[in-house]
């Protein structure tokens, strides 16, 4: 058997850090540029970064960024709370809990970064996509991009006081876009659209939240128009293995290979460590699991993965498969920076047998 070069982290990691991103406005501080969607567009590689921003505040206060919508118009606002208030819970860096309400400690938007070599990126100065209605009042996060025919479809997580949902937009030029609204209502995220119809139907992976029974798992659904989804089935559940005991969720859109649809998904342990795994689905019926890796493809071990805004996290929602079989896995590290791991389709398929 020929030697297969294992997946390698790029020596230039992290490719993009918060200091590389201009704040969206006065008084905002960029805390993270991470979890990028990825796609080839002409002779460029485009990343659609999640840019998380906090607000400037005093030493004794917590400043929570949010958008308030009146008559369909959004205005940035700040909720200011005293750190000394016993009802302010800051135990998790991602959230601010106050009087029974959960807020995000940062507000995210989506920002384009462009590259001709897939390594050195120029981040655009203005947001590509910002909160547009009340369903996005806490921000928009973690996009995925898939090309279907001549259009690019971008789904993302919309967050508000009504929890998180998944919304969809489309574009042909990454300058103008069409909004299609929410396609998976709360609580649902980690949606991955398949890049083509299968037996005349669109397919998507998604992750509804289990709060009373079971654990958050990967589901599959079908659609005739990418907007209305049905025939929902649970596809994959967490395993008690030390890596994905808590929950699992889909990653980037699946890669079509001669052996089936290849998916790189994430698993979270009981200690909130995020790792990546491979999964192979049947080419003609992706509700059929052919293989599932028994051990992680990538675990957080580098300093930029273990320490950050929320440490011990590697999370991918952007993969580019090249014509020569190489695969570029763009991933978020510790909810702070954007990184790259390089491998091949052959190596990813081989990881399913380990």
Walk me through the topology:
Elements: E1 8-9, E2 28-41, E3 44-55, E4 61-70, E5 73-82, E6 88-89, E7 95-98, E8 101-104, E9 107-115, E10 122-123, E11 139-148, E12 151-160, E13 163-171, E14 178-184, E15 188-193, E16 202-208, E17 218-223, E18 229-236, E19 247-249, E20 255-257, E21 260-268, E22 274-281, E23 289-292, H1 303-306, E24 314-321, E25 326-333, E26 337-344, H2 345-350
Antiparallel strand pairs: 1-26, 2-3, 3-9, 4-5, 6-7, 7-8, 9-10, 11-12, 12-13, 13-14, 15-16, 16-17, 17-18, 19-21, 20-21, 21-22, 22-23, 24-25, 25-26
How would you summarize what this structure contains?
The chain has two helices and 26 strands. The chain has 354 residues and is mainly beta. The strands form seven sheets. Strands 19, 20, 21, 22 and 23 form a five-stranded antiparallel β-sheet that branches.
